[in-house]
Amino acid sequence: GWAHGLGCICGLVGLVVMFIGRGVELDEISLQAGHGFAALCALSWALYSAMSAREKQLGTNVLGAIFLISGCLNLIYWYGALRAPPAPAHSLLVVILSAIPLYGAYMLWDYAMKYGDCQLVGMSSFLTPVLAALCLVAIGAASPTPYLIGSLALVMLGIGFAKYGHMLAKT
Questions:
Q1: 8 Å CB contact between 126 and 159
Q2: How many CB atoms lie within 10 A of CB 23?
Q3: Distance of CA 157 to CAs 80, 91, 127, 149, Å?
Q4: Which of 16, 41, 90, 160 has the most CB atoms lying inside 10 A of its own CB?
């Protein structure tokens, strides 16, 4: 409902605040092919999540097919557009080491969407960049600037709206 939309907007505004804090000017932003691929990935992930949550009998074979298609598209883009790294042995190692966590993430997400609390899963996915930013600050790789704190506060506000916004409508 409206609370999820407002939560999404808060998260996106938080992202803009973070970019502004890093000195990125809006007229400096240019879209590239990778941005389109990222948008398609986000859309397909959202559609898959909704389908998985509604159709609990949907088998793991569908998940395997989605994983295979995702991997093939990534491989085509990697070798076609990026011209792949020069050392094939390193390329194979990267593929192997990334495929296992990627498949694990698909399996865990699929299980959580079918048998878990979908709102909690969505909220935890919003928390991921917040926790990553806090880890970067903790190890000294990032500074706790007002922009970063504001950005994280907006993301947390978005989580709050998405999780508890329905309570505001009842008051």
A1: yes
A2: 8
A3: 40, 40, 11, 12
A4: 160
pLDDT at 145: 92
Cα distances from 145 to residues 19, 98, 113, 148, 154, in angstroms, run 12, 32, 36, 5, 14
Q: What is the pLDDT of residues 82-107, one digit of tens each?
A: 666 556 666 676 667 666 776 777 77
pLDDT of 150 reads 93
Contact 155, 10 (CB under 8 A): yes
CA distance 100 to 96: 7
Tell me how far apart the alpha carbons of residues 106 and 63 are, in angstroms, rounded to a whole number: 7
Q: Do residues 137 and 143 touch, judged by C-beta distance below 8 A?
A: yes
Q: Are 84 and 78 in contact (CB under 8 A)?
A: yes
Which phi and psi (to 5°) does residue 57 adopt? -80, -5
CA–CA separation, 24 and 74 (whole Å): 28
User: How many angstroms separate the Cα of 116 from the Cα of each of 3, 122, 155?
Assistant: 21, 11, 23
Do 140 and 100 meet the contact criterion of CB atoms below 8 Å apart? no
Q: How many C-beta atoms surround the C-beta of residue 100 within 10 A?
A: 9
